[in-house]
Amino acid sequence: MCRLFAFTSYEPLSPMRAIDALNVMKEGHDGSGVGLYMADLGGEFEGYKGLPILSGIVTLEGLGKLDQYMFEKGFMPMHQLSFEPGRTPPPLTPKRYTYLVRVYDIPREWKSLSEQERSDRLLQTRLHLRKMGLEDDSIIVYSFWPDSIMIKEIGDPVEVARYLGLDREGLTARTVMAQGRQNTNYDITLYACHPFFLQGYATMTNGENTAFVPIREYLTSRGFPGYVGYSSDSEVFCHILHYVHKRLGMSLEAYKHTITPLKDETLRRHPDGDTLRMMKHTLRPLIIDGPNMVIGCLPDHTMFMVQDSKKLRPGVCGGRPGLFAFSSEMCGLEYMIPNRDRERDVQPMGADMVVVDRARKEMRIWSQWDRYALRRAA
Amino acid sequence: MESMGSLRITPSSLSVKDLPWQVHWDQDKCTLCGRCTSVCPVRAIELGVFRKRIVQVDVNDRSAASNVYKVFYGVKQQTDPAHACIGCAMCDLVCPNRAIRPMRADDADKLRFHINQGGEPRKRGGRRNVAGTLLDHIKFTRISMLTDPALDAGRHEFELRTLLGRVLSPESMMAHLDEEGYALPVREIYPLIIGSMSFGALSPTMWEGLQMGIAYLNEELGMPVRMVSGEGGVPRRFLKSRFLKYMILQIASGYFGWDEILHAIPHMKEDPCAIEIKYGQGAKPGDGGLLMWYKVNKLISAIRGVPMAISLPSPPTHQTKYSIEEAVAKMIQSMYMTWGFRVPVYPKISATKTSLAVLNNLARNSFAGGLAIDGEDGGTGAAYDVSLNAMGYPIASNIRDAYLNLVAIGKQNELPLFAAGGVGKSGNLAANAAALIMLGASGVQIGKYVMQAAAGCLGAESDRCNICNIGLCPKGITSQDARIYRRLDPEQVAERLVDMFESFDTELRKIVAPLGRSTSLPIGMSDALGIGDAHAAERLKISYVC
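ok -> structure tokens follow
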């Protein structure tokens, strides 16, 4: 079973804190890979808040193709994280030509576009680069979005992070999600590594998704170009979140009601039963059946944890005002935030959701039995 | 060779050997009680008076007569086509000494060439006479192991319900919730539906037993089981009862029973569950319903609004509709209007190469509440033998094509598909149903299986019995003759129906739990399926396993 760790902090912190927390939980992953998502960046990226950051891995040829494409489209490189990996990669980790974390200024003609239009064009650009890269395995692109960095690599999390120099000064973030991978396939596909990302939405998941195929079919039939990939059955959790929250304009609570609706009998007693019943009917193909624990993050950096309705995976949330952590194991939380009120730790159950918004002042526990707003705040 | 001129032999003269079923009778065990001959529905056996010559030679007295003629009594099998044994084995069932039973011929019968006496082709009930179904070969191969532990069929909570009715698209739902407008009705029902068997095709005792069983399943066990009425209406008293909500009323091309239904609308306490518009039947695609004159008694004629003792063949199509657009749009619309848009309306067709054309028309009609597709292995109360045996399309690939077509247009949740036709044909009800659901059906309909499990129907695809059409059903399931149908106790039918649904429910859980599914019906979970036939795997887009 993979290990998951995320934190959300008022002050920007080094992502190594999350990597070290994964290391504490090492018993549960085989060090076959690591995925790291950073958002609400600090340090050297603080000054580029509105500009998209391209994250990926390229070969020499890939870099040439990428540069040419971006140049033709009118993207101007503004800043990049200079990776200086050690000479010898850790065991399992392949030698790459280069890792890319690069801030671009957007094409001039984009500046007058609406935010929606701009975000769709960013997605199209990423999908185009992805497609170009798949032709000859020269480009892997994880994300292309403002204030967001994604790094994924094969190997032990701590060794990979040190190899890539992620412990450097200047690389900090307020929102960090990290996964230590327990591989279930012989060949490791980087596109199958968590966290998954789409237009500011990120999720990572523990467990398998037994309802994967019908969910994938449903998402791909929505006619939205971003619903592609699915090298991993867990990618759909991110896309369901995107679909429900961004495309349908529903609240985060409605996401929870979508993936784990209450039972028919219990809906009869729920104050919002009629609406929830209609949602359950309409979004039936997006019901997950577990066993899954999902940690996710919205574009506004709200972080949450939910379980499948049977709660078949572990997950704990805790912290103090200004710093909260979401972890698949208690020891990870204990490592990250030892000085917290442990009595306020929460292990969300089947109908619960734990939410920390970007103010990071408190941890809110919401149950599907509570009232909720269908639509997300504008 | 001696001339046999004294014997009358016609082209249709058959020996017992020429018949498909041969009655074996044991003189030693027979008590001559006569039960077998009186119970035989087709009078295939009758009292036989046999003359026997015994040669007795007295070695001491050569002058004494050596021949003794004796008469003895027993059972004699008729050989004329009208009285050929149907293999029902009621003789065996009633015999106190197990002295008689029909045996299947070891050779191809000759009866089949002579069963069209008077130029009238054979008509019968039952299914096409081919054993087994492809569904029996589909395995469930995605078993959760260590990575995602399998669920416990006995201890976890399961919610295996399905939806019937036009489900809003997510975008329409959001608009609807903003406007607080009207939404079409959607029913939450059990995914195993009792398919259309009409009041008329079924005996009153069978029908009553089913209603009692359904009421118990709903009201005592909380299982929202529904039944389709078939074409022919229902008794007026039922239309005014609260049990109507468990019934899907069917309208078909003969419109039988609908005069009564329309007149009862002002008196209805409950809306029916749904309206099924029958355009076709898997057992005899392209042919209309048929209730033969034997079964049109006073009650049936009153409900259907026709004279007694005439055959009631429904036309193959709805005569007032000339095109699919019109049929689909106008009929669906008018049936919705009849109940004030409170009752879902959906069509049922027989599986055919043109199913997708119908489906696409329905997808564009925003009212269609689903589509039921009936495959070639479906049963019937009466049909031409040739229609049963030669016409049709298997359900597995037809439902799969339909589902994938809906996926392609993104409406797989909006328009639920229901599969029928041979579900449980070999007794594997839960496995067949689960396979169809994972191929894309939202639920399945069964008819023949219900008659077999709940009422002891003897029919089989070895062409056993299959006389549902002439009202002589030996078990009283499809008879309108009180002397016959009183054999069937409605209370016992109800009990068996409940047994059947409860055991199905357990078996369905035993299938979905190891696949890690419990909170929703695994519609379209095709990755769980495998089959050891590469062509079938490719056609159904599931795994080939060997």
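The mean pLDDT of chain A is 93.
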